[in-house]
Amino acid sequence: xxxxxxxxxxxxxxxxxxxxxxxxxxxxxxxxxxxxxxxxxxxxxxxxxxxxxxxxxxxxxxxxxxxxxxxxxxxxxxxxxxxxxxxxxxxxxxxxxxxxxxxxxxxxxxxxxxxxxxxxxxxxxxxxxxxxxxxxxxxxx
Length: 141
Hints:
Elements: E1 8-12, H1 17-29, E2 35-39, H2 43-48, E3 59-62, E4 65-68, H3 69-78, H4 82-85, H5 95-113
Parallel strand pairs: 1-2
Antiparallel strand pairs: 1-3, 3-4
């Protein structure tokens, strides 16, 4: 069992163009530098999410808690610069509704937005946010 990491990590589908664009958006608007980022396909993603059915979704791992779909999106929006926080108003809709819309987009995202041949490469200023995780450095109970 992996110990709880005291981090907020956004996991994304590295093969999805929409997911990569979303990552660029989050990087640009994460003014506090709260989040680290890793592809779902990374060793860390596979290890932390191994007991979890990884959806076609962005996944937020925050201090040992895994959030997916609109729960993850609303939590991420909470920490972005002020002009984007207004989108959190949709969190007052039933999760059944917001997750249903999310799933429609997730299911069709590669058809609508295409595939990413490679994971997004961060700019020089964002490299420290996109961590290169080493499995050996993750504490295991």
